[in-house]
Amino acid sequence: MTVRIHSTAVVDAAAELGPEVVVEPYAIIGSGVRIGDSTTVAARATVVGDTKIGSGCHIGIGSVVGTDPQDLKFQGERTTLEIGDSTHLREYTTINRGTAASGSTVIGRRCYFMSYVHVAHDCRIGDDVVLANAVQLGGHVAIDDNAQIGGATPIHQFVHIGTHAFVGGGSRVPNDVPPYTMAVGNPSRLFGINTEGLRRADFDPELRLALKRAYRLLFNSAWPRIDAVEFLRAESGHIPQVMELVSFVERSERGVLV
């Protein structure tokens, strides 16, 4: 139940480290940091600011976590970063705290961020999200549970990516990506339902079929979208996932990809 801190690491006396935390050579941990049980801060990583990291996490080699937001409006106000349990950051990940706009950047549980990922200020990332190498998130991006983003993908500020969505590598994402869909391209466009991802997530075949039908009606039919929405609410209002897709499209502030 001891904390293991390498002799070359620099850990502020005011930092809070739980049992079994490991701090590897030349890592730096600042005064406002709280780190949960059994988390590892790898060699040369830096964790600063008002940052809370959950239990069982891994902060990769050379990562820089909890730094000031890259926003010219930031005036040094107190903002936070929260990272949920069992989240794994690979080498050279960078994550900024929030700004006064929301006060915090929040990352969920069991996320996996590969090397050179950047998460900007005020982002909201759900549970079980995978960001491949060199994914770059602008400020205020929201990514819902179980979404996966391929490598070298820039995502514009304020974009919302829905649950179980998949974005192919090398894409550029300027607009919202609806839940359960697949997007790719520069700029991105939709390529149907994320069939393979839903199958791997054990979605029932009938549910996958219902989502495909809803997708076709919303995006691949001659119906005005308002008519498609009304029809789906009447026909499929008993299917929560279809209603989530419909509601996402209705709520979108940036507009969804097509």
Main attributes?
4 helices, alpha/beta, 258 residues, single chain, eight-stranded parallel β-sheet
Describe the 3D structure.
This protein has 4 helices and 27 strands. With 258 residues, it is of the alpha/beta class. It has an 11-stranded mixed sheet with strand order 1-4-7-10-13-16-19-22-25-26-27. The longest helix has 15 residues, at 205-219. It is elongated and about 65 Å long. The protein starts with a strand and ends in a 7-residue tail after the last helix.
Short précis:
With 258 residues, the protein is of the alpha/beta class. The chain has helices at residues 195-200, 205-219, 225-236, 240-251, and strands at residues 4-5, 10-11, 16-17, 22-23, 28-29, 34-35, 40-41, 46-47, 50-53, 58-59, 64-67, 80-83, 88-89, 94-96, 104-107, 112-113, 118-119, 124-125, 130-131, 136-137, 142-143, 148-149, 154-155, 160-161, 166-167, 181-185, 188-193.
Neighbour order of strands in the largest sheet: 1-4-7-10-13-16-19-22-25-26-27
Report the structural category.
Answer: alpha/beta
Total count of helical runs of at least 4 residues: 4
Oligomer: single chain
Percent of residues in beta strands: 25-35%
Radius of gyration over alpha carbons? 20 Å
Largest sheet: 11 strands, mixed
The backbone outline, from C-alpha atoms, is: elongated
How far apart the termini lie comes to 53 Å
Contiguous runs where pLDDT drops below 50 for at least 5 residues: none
Query: What is the mean predicted local confidence, pLDDT?
Result: 97
Number of strands: 27
Helix percentage: 10-25%
